[in-house]
Amino acid sequence: LKPAEGYPQQRIDEIGWVLAQLAASQKAYSDAIARGDRSYQREVFAEPKSAYGEARQARPEEKYPFTMIARIDSIVATRANLAAKQKADEEARQKALADEQDRKYSEAIAKADGLFIAKSYEGSRDSYREAQRLKPAEGYPQQRIDEIGRVLAQLAASQKAYIDAIARGDRSYQR
Q1: In degrees rounded to 5, what are phi and psi of residue 60?
Q2: DSSP secondary structure letters along 90-150
Q3: pLDDT beyond 90 at 101
Q4: How far apart are CA 132 and CA 109, in angstroms?
Q5: How far, CA to CA in Å, does 121 sit from each of 54, 127, 134, 144, 155?
Q6: Is 37 exposed, middle or buried (0-12, 13-18, 19+ CB in 10 A)?
Q7: Model's pTM, two decimal places?
């Protein structure tokens, strides 16, 4: 209507600039959401959180990026809690196993020591071997096993000397 009037053209240019800004904002938002959704599906949560943050900056009025960031934070926290619980459970299980092994070791040593005192050397050696199997790093069972070996060797030598002496005595008596 008034081609020489500059104000309408100025407003048209402003509207074009605003529409271009809105289009750029929408494109940045859409691209960031698409990247975030792809990363979210792969469960690589640092990447989608960053992308949703970009989307939130591009279109602060949109709720979806806020919702997704909250969901990611919740998933990450839940996984961290589960990992901590699993670690604590595993530590408790390992402690229970170690306590049980300590108990069995102590029982095997007590039984072996009792049998050794009673001069039941074979049973004692078996119990020391059981204790050694339970705790291979402990030196006491091996020391006692070695000692039993020496005692049995001495007993065998003593028995042989006794049998030899009886045999000599019998031969001398028969002459």
Answers
A1: -60, -20
A2: HHHHHHHHHHHHHHHHHHHHHHHHHHHHTT-HHHHHHHHHHHHHH-TT-SHHHHHHHHHHH
A3: yes
A4: 9
A5: 78, 10, 20, 10, 11
A6: middle
A7: 0.57
